[in-house]
Prior knowledge:
Layout lengths: L1 E8 L4 E8 L3 H15 L11 H8 L7 E8 L10 E4 H9 L1
Antiparallel strand pairs: 1-2, 1-3, 3-4
Amino acid sequence: xxxxxxxxxxxxxxxxxxxxxxxxxxxxxxxxxxxxxxxxxxxxxxxxxxxxxxxxxxxxxxxxxxxxxxxxxxxxxxxxxxxxxxxxxxxxxxxxx
Length: 97
């Protein structure tokens, strides 16, 4: 199955799109994140993280600043409509239950 993923980085103001092939949305998200980090490597930390930064990271915040914005199945060739991009939370929540 082909998936179209969009990642957003608020700090940099960048929206990145990736097409991946995977059976499940969770696997597609991991492949997309790997491609994203290969193209946009995270910047090294300048100093030791403070307590606030450590707490944010423990709460699931990705230190790179990238967030999976949308994920959807890619439409086949010759399709009149664009890709089905639904919210990432809805698709991923359905895959994990």
